[in-house]
Design goal:
Alpha-Beta Plaits; Pectate Lyase C-like; 2 domains; 5-stranded mixed beta sheet; 3 helices; 31% strand
Length: 254
């Protein structure tokens, strides 16, 4: 005679559900691993562009560091980033020894969604992520000219952050001051751009920013940026295309 085992519910199991998920976050690629160098540089940027990356979850990229693990003070770096209201979620890239040093400091080892697990990392968490896109009524995805794009038809309010992963971002309304729009590809604003625009977020130097009314707090393309005070020569209030020319940002009236 067989007896069926009776399932037992865990206490409080009806209060939550666990589901696998994959998200995207911005990567802060460290070109210098010394907190005394990195943190003041970030702080200087934030003073010139208040709110930029504030409370944003980020991954710390280690591939560009040519240092021994003991030369990177991860605990101090983490504390400094949190002091700037940046939330370090984990690390990507780097040598096994560097990733182990980061793990010892409390950082997770992240991997790209759908990517291979690092051979020295036992079951790392999937990449945890950036703020979600706007509600469905405000944003949608479509393909145009063979390229993914996110379409936003509502004004982007102050304090909002929108990220078009692996895609262009098309906004048919205003990006208000204090808002932040980010795209791995180009950014098109068919209205006033008064907030912060970050194009080519995955290091694409060919990305561009287009705006019918150009009056941003900050413009960045592939990691090179200019804040409002540095845009004196730009055609403010005009229809503008921003692009990279080598290591310089160029602003062309259209």
């Amino acid at each position: 005679m067989s007896v069926a085992a009776q399932p037992h519910a865990l206490p409080g199991a009806d209060a939550f559900r666990l589901r696998a998920g994959s998200f995207s976050i911005l990567v802060l690629r460290l070109l210098d691993g010394r907190p005394d160098v990195v943190l003041p540089a970030l702080g200087d940027q934030f003073r010139r562009a208040p709110g930029f990356l504030r409370f944003a979850p980020i991954a710390i990229g280690l591939d560009d560091l040519n240092l021994a693990p003991h030369e990177v003070d991860f605990p101090r770096l983490i504390a400094g980033l949190k002091g700037l209201d940046i939330i370090p979620m984990g690390v990507v890239g780097g040598s096994p020894a560097m990733r182990q040093a980061a793990t010892a400091a409390g950082l997770s080892q992240l991997r790209p969604a759908g990517g291979e697990t690092a051979p020295d990392a036992a079951a790392p968490a999937p990449a945890i992520a950036a703020p979600p896109p706007p509600p469905a009524r405000q944003a949608s995805d479509f393909r145009g000219a063979g390229r993914n794009a996110m379409l936003v038809t509502q004004p982007v309010r102050s304090g909002s952050r929108i990220y078009a992963e692996g895609a262009d971002l098309i906004i048919t309304s205003t990006v208000n001051a204090g808002a932040e729009v980010i795209a791995d590809g180009n950014i098109h604003v068919y209205g006033a751009l008064r907030g912060r625009a970050v194009a080519g977020a995955n290091d694409n130097p060919d990305a561009r920013v287009f705006a019918l009314h150009f009056d941003p707090e900050l413009i960045a393309i592939a990691g090179l940026y200019a804040v409002r005070e540095g845009l004196a020569a730009a055609p403010i209030g005009k229809t503008v295309m921003a692009r990279l020319d080598g290591e310089s940002l160029r602003f062309e009236k259209l």
